[in-house]
Design goal:
The structure is a single chain. With about 500 residues, this protein is mainly beta. Helix content is about 10%, strand content about 25%. The protein contains six helices and 26 strands. The strands form six sheets. Strands 20, 21, 22, 23, 24, 25 and 26 form a seven-stranded antiparallel beta sheet that branches. Strand 20 and strand 21 form a beta hairpin. The relative contact order is 0.15.
């Protein structure tokens, strides 16, 4: 049976082609955007779904190393993100609006669905205009068929059905608000990414139609459906506003970083992008093989890599964001920190052993390379000068436990899966070993700078890798390493 969401998607074009839909939970909330701001602190907060190891500089190759994804299809290590929604109370404070994830649709649309191609490795794209604050009729799709502004829509799920709107016009929604966005489906066949998104174009009808002549490659049509619980906050006469300072919704946007297993994706496009289907993953054999119904339990949200607060009751929107209601377009100055302005919360914004940073705030990767035992080192780019007082080292032994090596996480689950905990503030090798030893486990492992795992044996296909792949300093002691992204520093009781 088709869900209400499915009917909404299909009704946009009045036809019913083959597609699959995938539920995704949140994997991280934070100022991360490896497409628009690679290696830097994003200007605003995103809700991110997909590969568990998403970071500020993630690439296709990085995502392939993730030990799980917060989406149902485990062969898809892509990441999908949209701006976080907040409620600005009448006293000026901001509060995060509840959101449990999104549904991602892959639709076989276009005039020649049999010619649809899979997304290539390294492909990235965005959709939407964060600066928009009103409905723009001047920019249109190919052949002037439809305003490009139609890529964004909102559906208020109240007690009675309501028509969709291009802006966030209705927010009294008892059953939630859906923010929806279409992505370009036509590719120039040459560039995996262009900063102005010119490597892709929308179909003439947005969700269907033909591609412009300069964009001959038809891709699967991506559509995000993000649901917000508007009643999760107490509305007191304030307003809802997205993380980039947009109370109108016209600036809603989304990002897609391809992380698909190429073989699986190609087979799914070939077998499940044409004809008619229910959209269920189990109806598409190439996808069904890696469908995980309990993905939200096996791949739960990870603590943000960014220390700056993004949840709870906040005095201001994270970053240097100004709330701009339009109808004129917002400007970059409304979203970016001035050269001399301090970005709230960034004194320790990115996890590193940095002790000095530029006035604009930290923007470099949190990864500290395992390069030896020199007393100090520094990393410099155009946005950050970072000084590391002490290069982290590997703890070789502690009590009866000795270092057993750096392991790549298991391919079907955690390498150590009997017990564990997360501590984004004070995780150390010592605290993890103590935790495991108290519970009688002979193996202890630290991962991702803040995660501890215990077990009796290495499981799920985990293998030993080069020690320098475990390159994240512990949150509780920056002088020692606590694994890496999908990499586990393992200690064995002697």
């Amino acid at each position: 049976m088709l869900t209400t969401t499915t009917l909404t998607v299909l009704s946009l074009s009045g036809v019913s082609e083959a597609f699959w839909r995938m539920s995704c939970g949140i994997i991280q909330t934070g100022r991360i955007d490896p497409i628009v701001s690679p290696g830097k602190l994003s200007s605003h907060v995103h809700k991110i779904a997909g590969a568990a190891n998403i970071g500020i500089s993630s690439t296709y190759d990085d995502l392939q190393l993730a030990n799980c994804t917060s989406c149902g299809i485990q062969a898809d290590k892509s990441t999908y993100w949209t701006p976080q929604l907040y409620y600005q109370h009448s006293n000026g404070k901001f509060e995060e609006v509840g959101n449990q994830g999104m549904t991602v649709y892959y639709l076989g649309r276009g005039d020649k669905p049999a010619n649809i191609k899979p997304f290539p490795p390294g492909f990235r794209m965005i959709s939407g205009d964060p600066l928009a604050r009103s409905y723009d009729t001047s920019a249109t799709t190919y052949n002037n068929a439809r305003p490009i502004a139609d890529r964004v829509s909102f559906a208020c799920l109240d007690s009675a059905p309501m028509p969709e709107t291009p802006g966030m016009n209705r927010t009294q929604c008892k059953n939630g608000l859906r923010a929806q966005i279409h992505f370009p489906s036509c590719w120039n066949g040459l560039d995996l990414y262009a900063a102005d998104n010119s490597h892709v174009a929308y179909m003439s009808g947005m969700d269907n139609g033909v591609c412009p002549p300069d964009y001959p490659v038809q891709l699967m049509h991506l559509f995000y459906d993000v649901s917000y619980s508007m009643d999760s906050v107490t509305q007191d006469g304030g307003q809802f506003v997205f993380a980039h300072g947009d109370p109108t919704g016209y600036g809603f946007h989304g990002d897609f970083l391809n992380g698909w297993d190429s073989v699986v994706q190609a087979a799914a496009v070939k077998e499940c992008a044409t004809g008619d289907s229910s959209g269920a993953i189990q109806s598409c054999p190439p996808l069904a093989a890696s469908d995980m119904s309990d993905f939200s339990q096996k791949c739960p949200p990870r603590p943000s890599l960014i220390d700056a607060p993004v949840t709870g009751l906040l005095d201001k929107l994270p970053g240097c964001i100004k709330v701009t209601a339009g109808p004129g377009r917002a400007t970059l100055a409304d979203m970016l920190c001035a050269a001399a302005a301090a970005d709230a919360g960034t004194s320790s914004a990115i996890h590193s052993t940095s002790t000095t940073a530029s006035a604009a705030g930290p923007t470099a990767s949190s990864l500290v390379p395992r390069t030896g035992s020199s007393a100090s080192s520094s990393t410099t780019n155009t946005s950050l000068t970072m000084t590391v007082d002490t290069t982290p080292v590997t703890v070789n032994h502690l009590g009866s436990y000795v270092f057993d090596g750096c392991y790549a996480e298991g391919t079907t689950g955690h390498a150590l899966s009997d017990a564990g905990y997360t501590d984004p503030i004070s995780m150390t090798v010592e605290s993890c070993i103590d935790f495991c030893e108290e519970r009688g486990f002979g193996l202890s492992g630290v991962e991702y700078a803040l995660e501890c795992y215990c077990g009796a044996q290495i499981l799920n296909g985990a293998v030993r890798v080069a020690v320098d792949e475990c390159n994240l300093p512990c949150r509780g002691n920056s002088s020692e390493y606590c694994g890496g992204m999908s990499r586990l520093d393992v200690y064995l009781s002697g």
